[in-house]
Amino acid sequence: MSRANGGTQPRRPTSPVAGRSINRIPRAFSITSSLLLQGLLHVNVLFDVVLLGPGLLITWIIRAATGDAHERAYQILLPMFAIVLAAEGPRLALGYSGNLGERVPHLFLWLVLSFFPVLAMLIAILVIRANIQELTDAMCPSCLTPFEVVLICLEIVIVITSGTVGIFAMRRLIAVKTFRFYEQYFVTSMTELQPRRFYMLLICV
Predict the structure, then answer these.
(1) Cis amide bond preceding 146, omega within 30
(2) Which of 70, 71, 105, 182 could cysteine-pair with 140, CB 3.0–4.6 Å?
(3) pLDDT tens digits for 36-67?
(4) The domain containing residue 59 runs over which residues?
(5) Where are the alpha helices (DSSP H) in 29-77?
(6) How does it sit in the membrane (predicted)?
(7) DSSP 162-175
(8) Distance between CA atoms of 104 and 98, rounded to whole angstroms?
(9) Beta partners for 4?
(10) Residue 69: inside a domain, yes or no?
(11) Closest Cα to residue 138, out of 65, 70, 56, 81?
(12) 114: Cβ–Cβ under 8 A, 6 or more apart, which residues?
């Protein structure tokens, strides 16, 4: 029993090892969401809503109205742009859910969609533009405008950067969830059944 503020309070049994090792590690892993990844996702959403989506829609509407583009552009480039825009919504939703909700499957699916089909399609558009004769700048200048090329390049940079950060964020999330599983099912049982032996093991480690 110890006196505090004129009264007595029961003294809780403590262990210096438990205070240093067991209680400190969960606090270090209390926030597992990646702030950098969340910021990149915000940038990606703003870029898609303000520039990429409206820019591509406007250019293709103008292209269809004027009729300057080659027929191969509608057969090849337009479906690829449609796939990219259709995948952006679910991809970013999975990124938000996986990062903020600490869901490894959602984060993994976000990475898969980031590299395929989004990144693969964006790179393929530039490669096809440079290698198919009917779609080159010399044969069909309006098939892919410089403004669209800039949008594609910026989206590629954002996807690669966020994907790289997302890989490290997912690895950290897996490590934290593994630690929490170990702590819940193994550490608790060991401290309850053999506390002294467990504390000595922590000291040795």
Answers:
(1) no
(2) 70
(3) 999 999 999 999 999 999 999 999 999 999 88
(4) 35-183
(5) 35-47, 53-66, 71-72
(6) Multi-pass membrane protein
(7) HHHHHHHHHHHHHH
(8) 6
(9) 7
(10) yes
(11) 70
(12) 91, 95, 159, 162, 163, 166
Burial of 118: CB neighbours in 10 Å, binned 0-12, 13-18, 19+: buried
Domain assignment present for residue 195? The answer is no
Residue with tokens 């293709």: 60
Strand partners, 7: 4
Q: Two tokens at 56?
A: 């591509």
pLDDT digits (tens, 9 = 90+) for 19-40: 444 444 444 456 688 999 999 9
Q: How many domains does the chain have?
A: 1
Residue 16: inside a domain: no
3: three-class secondary structure by DSSP: strand
- Dihedral sign, CA of 28, 31, 36, 37? positive
